[in-house]
Predict the 3D structure of the following.
Amino acid sequence: MQDNINGCKGVEFDHFKSIEFDGFRNNKKTDMAKNKKINVEGTEILVYTDKEDEFISLTDIARYRDPERSDYILQNWMRNRSTIEFMGLWEIFNNPVFNSIEFDGIKNLSGSNSFSLTPKRWIKTTNAKGIVSKTGRYGGTFAHRDIAFEFASWLSAEFKFYLIKEFQRLKEEEQKQLGWSAKRELAKLNYHIHTDAIKQNLIPEALTPVQTSLVYASEADVLNVALFGITAMHWRKTNPDLKGNMRDYATMHELICLANMENLNSVFINEKMPQKERLIKLNQIAIQQMKILLEVENKKLLK
C-alpha cells in the first residue's frame, strides 16, 4: 500500500509475459473446424473452413437444380471448356504444385461430345487443391468459394446472388463471435493483471508489532496507519514534491474504505476501546473491505 501512496510505484508483470491465449486459440480452431450450414432459397448448403479458406459444397448447390441427380449436374458443368479454364487459372494462381501439363491435356479434350470429367479425376490428374472430394457423413464435392460461386453462376444468376449474400452473412456472424471471444480473453487477462496489482499495491498490509505499539498523536493518523501503513508526517517526508496530503492521492476504493473506517472508529472510541486495539481492528477491517470492493470491481470487469 505504501508503494501506491509513495509516488505510485509501477507494478511489474513479468510472470504474465508467458500467458498465452490457449483457450482462445483452441476455441477459434474448434469453431472454425465445425461444418456450418447456410440456407439459400430453401436449399441447405454446407460450408467448412480449411485454415483461412472457405470451401462450399458443390453437391448441395447442385441439389438446388436437381436433388436426385446432383452428381450429373456437377459433371455437366465440369465438362465445359470455360469451366476447366477457370478452374485451371485458379489453380495456377493458388496452387504451387498444380500439374499444368495434365491441365493442358484436359483442356484440349474439353468441349467434345465424348469428353467427361469427374471431380475425383480432376483432383487426381492435376493435383488440384481448389476442389475437394470428401467422404463420410458430411461428404460430397466441395470447392473453394471462388470456384463455388462460379458454379452457382452457371446454375442461376439469382441463386449465385443469394448464395453470396448468405455467405457474407455467415462471415459477419463469425467475425462478431471472434470479436466477442477476443474481448472475453482480454478481459480475463486484464483480470489477472489487475489482481496481481491488487496484491502488490492496493490491499493494506497487516501492521507490525512496532506500528501497533506506538501512540499516535491524532485519530487521523490512526486511520492513516490502519489503511495506508504510514502517518501523514512520514508521507510528507517521503513525498516532498507532492502537494496536499496522502488522501488526495488515494483511490476511490481507499476513500470509500476510509469513510467506513472513520464511522467505525467513532463507535470504538465511544466504547472506550484502547487506541492499540482500535488500530489492529481497523487494519483488519481495511484489509477485508478493500478485498471486497476490489472483488466487486473485478466481477464487473468480466461481465
